[in-house]
Amino acid sequence: MRILLLLLSILLEVDCLRVLRDPVTLSFSNQRNRDFKNQFSISDSPYQWSTEWLANVPVDHFAFANNDTFKLRYFINTKSYEEGGPIFFYTGNEGALEGFALNTGFMWDIAPEFKAAVVFAEHRYYGETWPYPKSLSYNDTRYLGYLSSEQALADFALLIDHLKQNRIPGAANSPVIVFGGSYGGMLSAWMRIKYPHIVHGAIAASAPVFWFFDSGVKEDVYDEIVTRAFVTEGCNFKAIEKAWVGLDNLAQTEEGRAYLNSLFKLEKTRQLQTPGDVNIIKNCVHDVFDTMAMVNYPYESNFMAPLPGWPVAAACKSLSVVAKSDKEAAEGLHAAVNLYYNYTGKAEILCTDPDAALGENNLWPYQACTEMVMPICSSGPPNDFFWNTCPFTAAGWLEECKQLYVSFILHDAHFMVPHAALCPTLQNRASTLLRFYQENSIIHVKIIDQSIFPCSWVVSRKLEIKNVRT
C-alpha cells in the first residue's frame, strides 16, 4: 500500500540542519531547476490571472515604532465570479507565487461551480514581495526581523479587506475560503483561527499544524513514514542498512574516497577528502529519500526535479537485495540518487552543495530557526533505515542555527516556538475541524488539478467540495 505523507514539506540539509520546505516552491528556485519557467511557459497553462499589487502594507502590523510600508503581490482571476460569490484565497508559502498558482488546480477546478473569484497572495520576503531590498534583508535582522507567519497573516487579512471593499465588485459580504498546502496550509488553518470574522472556512492540505514541541508528534515519525514508503515499494531494509556501512568503509581509504567521488559525481567543493566527509554523501542520499517519498506521484512530475511516475518504486529496483560488497552497496544508493538528480541523463554532477538547493531566497531556514521549529530526527532501526540523530533538542537546534546564520549572531532571545497554544485551540474547536486521511496519496494531493486525480482519491475531493459549500 502506497503511504500517505501527511506533511507537505521538503527536507533540506545544511550539514546536519534539516529544514522543512514545500517542494512546489523549489520548482521555481532550486539550483537544478532554474530553467523551470523556460521548460513550462505560464502562458501555456490553463490557469490565467492578472498580477496586481496592494500598496501601503505595513512592515509591522503590531507596533508603532516602524511606519515603513511595502507592496504585496497577488494574482487574481474573476472570470467565474458573480456578484456576491465567494472568494477563494490561497495563503502563499515560502516561495514565488507562480508555483502555487500553477499547482493548485482544486481552486481553479471548482471556481466556476461556486461562481468564485480566485486569488493567490504572496508571502512577504518571498518571490517578488520584499518589504526591504534583498541586499539589506540578507544581512541585517533589523530588516529581516519582520519575516514571520504572524506578520504574513496580517498581510493577508489586509488584502482580503481590500478585495472585498475595493477590488471585487459586490464582494462586501462574500464569504472567503482560504486554501493552502504545507506551510501555506498551516497559514490557512491559522487564518481561520485568528481571523474568524474575515475567513469563513479553510482547506489546509498536508499542513503540519501540530508539529511543534510538546504537541505529541514523535520526533522520528517523518523518517518512519519515509522508510515505510520505500519498504512498501520493494526496498530491502537490510540492503539500505548495509549501504550506509559500505559508504563508511569505503571512506576510510583514499582509494575508496576517490571511488565515491567519481561514482556520485561530486562537485569539486564537495568531494570527500577525509573519512568524516562521507556525511556529504549520506546526507545527500537521505535528502533524496525524504524528497522522493513526498513527490511519489503516479505520473511524471517536475516539482523538485524531473522524475518518473512512482519514483520510489523505481528507486527501489536497485535496493531490493542486500549487496555482497561495499562497492555494490554504494552503487545501489547511487542508482537511487541518480534517478533523482539525473532522470533526464543531462546532469554532470549529482550531490550538490545543500546550500544551493535553497535557491535564491535562502530565508525559509531563517523562519525554521526563529519560529517554525519542528522537531525532526532519525532514530535508526527499527524505526527507520537511517542512522541515529535523535534526540532533537532546542539547544542543539539553536546551536546549528547559529552556525548557519553566524553573521546574524542569533541569541536565545531570537529562538521562539510560537503557535503552541494553537494546538489546544484547534482541539477545543473540534466540532468545526474536519481531518481527512487519504491512503495511497502524496503531498498537495488535496489541492492539485483534478484531471490528474487518481480514482481512489475522488471521495476525498468530494468531501472537500461538500465542506466548501457548507
Automatic annotation (TrEMBL):
SUPFAM superfamilies (alphabetical): alpha/beta-Hydrolases (SSF53474)
Assigned keywords, A-Z: Glycoprotein, Hydrolase, Protease, Signal
GO function terms (MF aspect): dipeptidyl-peptidase activity; serine-type exopeptidase activity
Biological process terms in GO annotation: proteolysis
Signal peptide: 1-16
Family, similarity comment: Belongs to the peptidase S28 family.
Protein name according to UniProt: Prolylcarboxypeptidase
Organism name: Diploscapter pachys
